[in-house]
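Field reference: "sequence" (input) and "structure" (output). Example, DUF7086 domain-containing protein:
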Amino acid sequence: MAQPDPSDPDYIPSPYPWSRPRRASVHTLHHLLSSGCDTITGHLRCKRCDVTVEVAHDLRDRFMEVARFVAAERPRMHDRAPPVWMKPRLPTCQNCGYANAMKPVIAPKKRNINWLFLLLGQMLGCCSLAQLKYFS
């Protein structure tokens, strides 16, 4: 793989080990697994009690879950996100017990958003339209 060129206008420093030095892009699944990156972490914050926790997703298991979902739902998607992705069901807070409360912590700068964590957690619907457009 060629070394990233910091003078390239699309170059950004990789904010996570699974991201590439280009905006909103990640390494391939094969590359990540072969280099030992099998856990993707991110943070969730409770909307009620404001506690923040780190959550880890098993890359292989979560990727297969998302892939199966997309394969099953694709004929009904019509180039649109399914409703379950647009309004994701959020985890219950273990601290206060409030249901549907743990929102992902999304970096203020779009280039630092943990896209793979959001995809694997099926929480891309927590992003604004401007954030999603950055990814496309």
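Residues 59-77 form the longest helix (19 residues).
DSSP finds five helices and three strands in the chain.
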